Amino acid sequence: MPKTHGMGDQFWLNGYDIGADIQSFSEINGGFTPLPATAITHSAEARMGGPRTGSMNALSYWNPDADREHAVFSPLPTSDVLATYAHTSAIGGPSANLTAKQVSYDVQRGQDGSLMLPVPLLSNAYGLQWAFQATAGRRVDASATAAGAVTAYDQGSATPGAFGLTMYVHLFALSSGSVTIKLQESSDNGADAYADVTGATTGALSSAHQGLRIQTGAINVERYLKVVTTGTFTNADFSVSVVRHRVLTEF
Prior knowledge:
This protein has one helix spanning 69-73, and strands at residues 10-13, 16-17, 22-36, 47-61, 81-86, 94-102, 108-109, 115-123, 129-133, 139-141, 153-154, 165-186, 195-205, 210-215, 224-244.
């Protein structure tokens, strides 16, 4: 099977593109916390899935420029942040998404004079989710009427059931007005006309920088999905990642 490298990947935090300041990740992980569930009838330990969890540990360079890593990490926000690691910049490319708390921002100065900053991000309320990129990395729509051709992503099969989806959005810049970023769906990429996915919308956004996690209800989600922008705005710079839930407990 084909293998890929990690060159050209991206990292976004709450609508800030700071991948160029990240040297590496020591871990990007998630999954269920195993809980012991051994009965007296078992001949070995049994486990069941507990709460979903996740973490990202980034190692960043010091960059004091505006909107770069120091301005983003140093405030140590107490509220949740949305972190997205995007592998490649293509529609359908994988991305890891984490609603998290930033735990620390510690400086490590090496004897060689290097200045590095490990930044741990720990999941809060939701576990890490691997999704597909519904935009090719960052996308800029000059206006709702000049968004250009929208490429849909083929998920390869009909809905797995009424389990809904989660949508991750970063708004990096917005010159003026307000933009609504939403998903539309079709069962066959056109003959079945595209229609809005119920609940898969940001609502009107009037300022950057923002990172949003949006979860629909327990609905069927069709095979083809595409991103659409509406509103009166200029130069909306954003990214969207989506995961269609395969089972009810996935989120």
